[in-house]
Write a structure and sequence with these properties.
Layout: H1 11-27, H2 34-41, H3 45-51, H4 55-79, H5 84-100, H6 108-115, H7 122-143, H8 150-167, H9 173-192
Length: 199
Amino acid sequence: MERSVSARPSEARSRLLDTASRIFYADGLHTVPVDRILAEANTTRATFYRHFPGKEDLVVAYLEGADRHLRDRLGETQAARRSAEEAVRAIAADIAADIRMPGFRGCAFLNAAAEYPDPAHPVHRRVVAHREWFLSALSDLFARIGDRLAEPAARHFVMLRDGAMAAGCLSEPAAVCKTFLDGVEGLLWSRSVPGAPRG
């Protein structure tokens, strides 16, 4: 159901969420106190609690915003490509571009999962939901490339992406991106070669 104009987030909520998203990504989730977010967002504690029952609700909202952004971006990337193979390459190129960005700190979802390892926690569940969507979207693309099982190839792509996201914080980004993109090319090649290993 579409939101009405009156249901749009308030300016204060948007400011809190934008500020928290920037700080959470740069500095982590557990280490950032609410007082810092309030100070940088120029917002009162009463306003904060009017929009978010607690800090972890703000963390979930941060991840939901990141999820929406990535879904929209993938949809736009896919719509602009003529074939599924071109779309996979473009998605990989977007990931590589992120890794090369100043201030890159890895994957927001992997970072959150490391800080919230309990599978029952709402933050962890939000991470899992995002990753299930991403795997499903890639499986749909790989199903249109080659005639073998698509999910193993999608899982392979996700693992390549996860490794690149982690290595991009630790190693030279250009080398990490080249390795990642070469791996994706190998994965696409394997979909078109009879008898090539699955995935």
